[in-house]
Specification:
Chains A, B: InterPro entries: F420-0_g-glutamyl_ligase (IPR008225), F420-0_gamma-glut_ligase-dom (IPR002847), Nitroreductase-like (IPR000415). Two copies of one chain form a homodimer. Chain A has two domains: 207 residues, 60s Ribosomal Protein L30, Chain: A; 99 residues, NADH Oxidase. Helix content of chain A is 22%, strand content 25%. The first copy, chain A, is built from six helices and 16 strands. The longest helix of chain A is centred in the C-terminal third of the chain and has 20 residues. At the A-B interface, strand 1, strand 4, strand 5, strand 9 and strand 11 of A face strand 1, strand 4, strand 5, strand 9 and strand 11 of B.
Chain lengths: 328, 328
């Protein structure tokens, strides 16, 4: 059995407050789940409301998508979330809150102030691209296994479990929100019954939960994707995967031609970095065919970027050459 | 306090089994969380492993993204998930399982077989685009509020709560997974202490959790986005939003030119459907400039698609015309 208990009676938190001292008695194996908002307040991560846009930009390393007033940002921490986590709710009027500077460090500090063998998770509320409604996820952790990795094991039928990695810290954050949200304005909950997930040392925090860019199949919001390609000025020696180039060319070649005829060709030339792709018109280079080839090259450049490859399209003769590699 | 209790001793489920009869005593207000796998087994949603690709296609209404062997599909139900939910783990060797045909209906059937005022959630395991690890989410529900909508309210500081809609059913699914996953092979858990979320009638199921396509900022996977544009043969009278066209042109115009000079121009001509955009070369139409213009047009077509607009690029003269509207 797992129990989720609210921590009642936590007063309004201000700069310099010691959150650990506000949390009462714990049992060994408890996981303390703290809403990031009070951590931000304790750490003085407050700004004035008119500075909201500047604050979002300060916290954003990459705009993942944008529509109207909504910006989905990747934060300095690697989180992909609305407005880089800058929040105007549950803070004094006229002020806004930023995420903690380093939420794993915040979790470690809180943990250090608590007695016993306990874990700490700092949470924030995230949207999801294809589902309505927000859920709480872990943005910082100390002393808790963030992921449970069943890879390499087998299920009860003997089938290999190829990719069953559970995001435990996120599930704990969501479970705690059920009690915090039910009561309203309860910023801390205790999850009891998961002592097997509490570790002796602080552990890796939430870093294992952040998917690296090269595994991200939704790296670019739809609007941004045509700018995904990176035009590089120099390439490293790191070899290019010919399969990745083949996939990019296949994908680009599947696009329709604006002229109704597919009068273009891509010749692959080279097997080092930079790899060379030579685009050319098939037949007479009429204006229409050159325009269609230009559109096709643009598709190739985007598809190469989707494979994690950098490119440079230069016009040394009519259609030029696309160099492909890893940017230096 | 919330308690999450495993339901132990559930035997291997087969076609025709009555899942409700396998669940023991409940209290009023309990929420029963059932792994979809046993629902699929009870409903006979089993296929032979060699038919996996066909099964994924059968369940897929749209490929959202693809990389190597991984396909992210939108299912018939509207869920965006790997392999359309077709799963080869925890099933008899040589077999695969599909999601229940209608998981909300499955939840209603299970609820009907249970005594007392209880809710039922059917869960499955989903990946997330920017975070490692899987979490359980609700794919079917009966008698449970799927979302808690705080919009229109105010927080404790009097700030308006503009978008705090919590995906309760998903958080409950994740909470239950903590107990099911901890013990292994426990397909049912009971969440106790959330009786305020249990409703008299079956309610809307999980439909409110599925984000409609026009709110989806990640509609197209990066690889597929260049094919997002729909080349239409006829347009309806529905007017085109000039702002959407302006945004698309601005976004496309921000791309770098392969020739180093931006020798293209887009002239907007028309305010009906189809709207007309005339691309042209600035200066002499050299091959390099035509190629660069072709790439720029491709960017415009993609950006128009991102605005939900259909287009048709025809070559009536050198660079032709882009007609923009809503496809008939």
């Amino acid at each position: 059995m797992i129990e989720i208990l609210p921590v009642l009676g936590i007063p309004e938190v201000g700069p310099g407050d010691d959150i650990a001292s506000l949390i009462g008695d714990l049992e060994d194996g408890d996981i303390v789940v703290v809403t990031s908002k009070i951590v931000s307040k304790a750490e003085g991560r407050v700004r004035q409301a008119p500075d909201r846009t500047a604050a979002i930009m300060e916290e954003t390393v990459r705009v993942v998508a944008r529509r109207g007033d909504t910006v989905i940002s990747q934060t300095r921490h690697g989180f992909v979330m609305a407005a880089a986590g800058v929040d105007a709710s549950n803070t004094a009027p006229g002020t806004i809150l930023l995420l903690p500077e380093d939420p794993d460090a915040s979790a470690r500090r809180i943990r250090k102030g608590l007695r016993g063998r306990v874990g700490v998770i700092v949470t924030d509320t995230f949207g999801r691209p294809w589902r309505h409604g927000l859920t709480d996820v872990a943005i910082g952790a100390a002393g808790v296994l963030p992921l449970e990795d069943f890879r390499g094991g087998t299920d009860t039928h003997g089938n290999p479990l190829s990719a069953t990695v559970t995001a435990l810290a996120d599930e704990i954050a969501s479970a705690a929100e059920l009690v915090k949200g039910k009561l309203g304005n309860v910023p801390v909950a205790i999850v009891r019954g998961l002592s097997h997930l509490v570790t002796d040392d602080d552990g890796p925090g939430v870093r294992p939960l952040v998917r690296p860019a090269d595994e991200d199949m939704f790296r670019y919001g739809s609007r941004d994707v045509v700018f995904a390609r990176r035009t590089v000025t120099s390439f490293t020696d790191r070899p290019v995967d010919p399969e990745a180039v083949r996939r990019a060319l296949m994908a680009a070649d599947a696009a329709a031609s604006p002229t109704g005829e597919k009068a273009w060709r891509f010749t692959v030339d080279g097997d080092a970095s930079p790899y060379r792709i030579v685009p050319s018109v098939v037949g007479e280079p009429t204006p229409a065919r050159l325009l269609a080839l230009g559109a096709a090259v643009q598709n190739v450049l985007v598809q190469l970027a989707m494979e994690g490859l950098d490119s440079r399209w230069t016009m040394d003769d009519a259609a030029g050459v696309i160099e492909v590699g890893h940017g230096g």
